[in-house]
Amino acid sequence: MLKTAKTVFRFQSRMLSTFQTLKVTSPKEYVKQVELNRPDRLNAFNKTMWIEIGKCFNELAVDSECRSIVLSGSGKHFTAGIDLLDMMDMGQKLSEMSDVSRKAKLFDDFIELYQKSITSLELCPKPIIVCTHSAVVGAGVDLITAADIRYCTKDSWFCVKEVDIGMAADVGTLQRLPKAIGSQSLVRELCFTARKMLSEEAEKCGLVSKVFEDRNAMIEEAIKLADTIAQKSPVAVQATKRNIVYSLDHTNQEGLDQIREINKLNLQSEDFFNAVIAGQTKGETPVFSKL
User: Fold this and answer.
1) Checking CA distances to 68, which of 15, 28, 149, 253 falls within 20 to 30 Å?
2) Span between the terminal Cα atoms of the chain, in Å
3) Domains, the chain, ranges and CATH?
4) Which domain of life is it from (predicted)?
5) How confident is the model at residue 7 (pLDDT cuts 50, 70, 90)?
């Protein structure tokens, strides 16, 4: 329904899970900020963080108090990538196993777990604005390429680090980075060499859409953008994200068919009628109910 009176809101988070490696706050109504919160380990990804990222974004996906998300990192760097101490623990477990099939099963299980963690951002219907500063290494590139909008600070640098530790990236970079920047040549150069890409190049190639002088200015702008998105119809915004993601790996016609199926329901929503009436009458901005 249309807004008829000024309302005062208390920006409090719903009862999400408690996390050890993430910090979740509500800077604006319907806006959640998720921070990687292992500053003492440069926000390196250990097993707990992998699990908690998936859990957090799966919960936010169905949280009616959340319509948009800002993802950032605390401390000196956005993330240093995979926590090598955690990998050493995995190596210890493997050393205690002699059978190759059982070793392969262990690898398959944890790679799939980590893949699902990153994919949770893509499957979350709420738009995600990721804000990076300083180092964005390895798993960090996997993470940001699954988000919707990418901002960075001037001191940011990006590195697909996996070849330097004797492995191929396996949780999303090789699939999503080519779609994020649109240059197979540049993607392959980055992935084959593990060289650093600085913020200027990241903006030029389209990996990020804006570069900021400092982290505070970046977060402030991201929250403003998230607030703008949160004031739109959640029916419209979430359908838009679903169709954009779907259309990335489907034909144009398949994407058209999917949005037609979605909109034959959504065009009957109160959101559509309220927005049309407000636009035609030049009335007050409509306020959309929870979804």
Assistant:
1) 253
2) 13
3) 22-230 (3.90.226.10), 234-281 (1.10.12.10)
4) Eukaryota
5) very low
